């Protein structure tokens, strides 16, 4: 059965028109509706998760889900969404790159956006939690004869990044999967790895007109997510050495992209 599901997902379903995919998704949701638990209390969320699985901490639910993923092609999953992300990157991030730029892509999935900018930079270090997706990314780069991207399996929570190395940084969707105690640690780690004036492009799910983070768990696919308010998310970067350059809504009513700049030393002193 697992083999049949894999063939359906990777060989058959991906070839269907987007209209058919959406119809199948709607039908599937009606037959087997998702059991989504949502709260604005982290303590309640931790308690709920402990009851579901006492062997796994709540903060690892999203991590465990992503670790198992074998392929993640945003163009196939949602063409319009992918194109909006691509357009934002080309318009607001790419102009800051040069053929001397060294870039980091943290949580690169199958490397689609590293591949997108590869011909515009000197080198890209790309990391993802899922070894299977890293292997897909390596094979894609080989097929496209791209040799300036180094793909490696790594956990964003424990990765060591070289200080003052990167001219630009990509982090597309990672922080929606990171629980509160760790997000500042990751942002500071990213900040320290970037050169003064370096640019950071981000994509995450955020809440507008809300006052608290929403902690969500989908028991159907055993996936968790952390949707922070727009203001809270913005303050994380503004209070940790970054200034905002650009931002835009790229999907639905809650997926946003940003470009931040690491403040220069004299700016941080002021």
What does this structure look like?
With 270 residues, this protein is an alpha/beta fold. It has two domains: 1-33; 35-269, Vaccinia Virus protein VP39 (Rossmann fold, 3-Layer(aba) Sandwich). The chain is 40% helix and 26% strand. The chain contains eleven helices and ten strands. It has helices at residues 2-12, 18-31, 42-52, 61-67, 74-77, 79-93, 112-117, 131-143, 180-193, 230-238, 265-269; strands spanning 36-39, 102-106, 123-128, 149-153, 166-172, 194-207, 214-218, 223-229, 242-251, 255-262. Strands 1, 2, 3, 4, 5, 6, 7, 8, 9 and 10 form a ten-stranded mixed sheet that branches. α8 links the parallel β3 (123-128) and β4. It is globular, with a radius of gyration of 19 Å. The relative contact order is 0.14. The model is unreliable at 6-12 (pLDDT under 50).
Spell out the blueprint of helices and strands:
Blueprint: H1 2-12, H2 18-31, E1 36-39, H3 42-52, H4 61-67, H5 74-77, H6 79-93, E2 102-106, H7 112-117, E3 123-128, H8 131-143, E4 149-153, E5 166-172, H9 180-193, E6 194-207, E7 214-218, E8 223-229, H10 230-238, E9 242-251, E10 255-262, H11 265-269
Global mean pLDDT: 86
Q: How many structural domains?
A: 2
Helix coverage percent of residues?
Answer: 40-55%
The CATH topology assignment of the largest domain is Rossmann fold
Largest sheet: 10 strands, mixed
Radius of gyration: 19 Å
Taking the alpha carbons of the first and last residues, their distance comes to: 62 Å
State the helix count: 11
H/E element sequence: HHEHHHHEHEHEEHEEEHEEH
Shape: globular
- CATH architectural label of the largest domain: 3-Layer(aba) Sandwich
CATH superfamily of the largest domain: Vaccinia Virus protein VP39
Briefly, what CATH class of the largest domain?
A: Alpha Beta
Structural class: alpha/beta
